[in-house]
Design goal:
126 residues, mainly beta, five-stranded mixed beta sheet, 1 helix
């Protein structure tokens, strides 16, 4: 039996640069999950999504939270930057090798210069 998503990624999530965000999916039948992989694709100069590459989890700014018991799988961003913008794809593979995919766009809005300057001033005082 293939993996069934009870809750997929939203079609589009808009957030401000340097804020945090959690992209989360829920699997209806967690006992069927063999593995879960996250991929990221960015828009190229033609306005199309390019190659899907594995998400780089660094354990600090970008982490992965998986719960095989509850069927909840997530990417957690501590501080988004403009390079995080793009399409995120969650690929769940069942124990027989069948894949099920869900995807959604993460749109990063640039931090306004006034806010960026305020953050820099605060960092220098600390």
């Amino acid at each position: 039996m293939s993996v069934v998503f009870a809750r997929a990624l939203p079609d589009s999530t808009q957030v401000i640069e340097e804020s945090g965000e959690r992209l989360e999916v829920e699997v209806e039948n967690p006992a069927e999950v063999g593995s879960v992989v996250w991929k990221h694709a960015v828009i190229d100069e033609d306005g199309d999504y390019g190659e899907e590459t594995p998400v780089k989890f660094d354990g600090v700014r970008v982490t992965q939270e998986d719960s095989a018991e509850t069927g909840i799988y997530a990417i957690v961003f501590q501080e988004l930057n403009m390079s995080d913008d793009g399409k995120y794809i969650c690929i769940a593979t069942d124990k027989k090798g069948g894949e099920t995919r869900v995807e959604g766009d993460l749109v990063i809005e640039p931090l306004p210069d006034t806010a960026r300057n305020l953050i820099k001033k605060t960092e220098h005082k600390a």
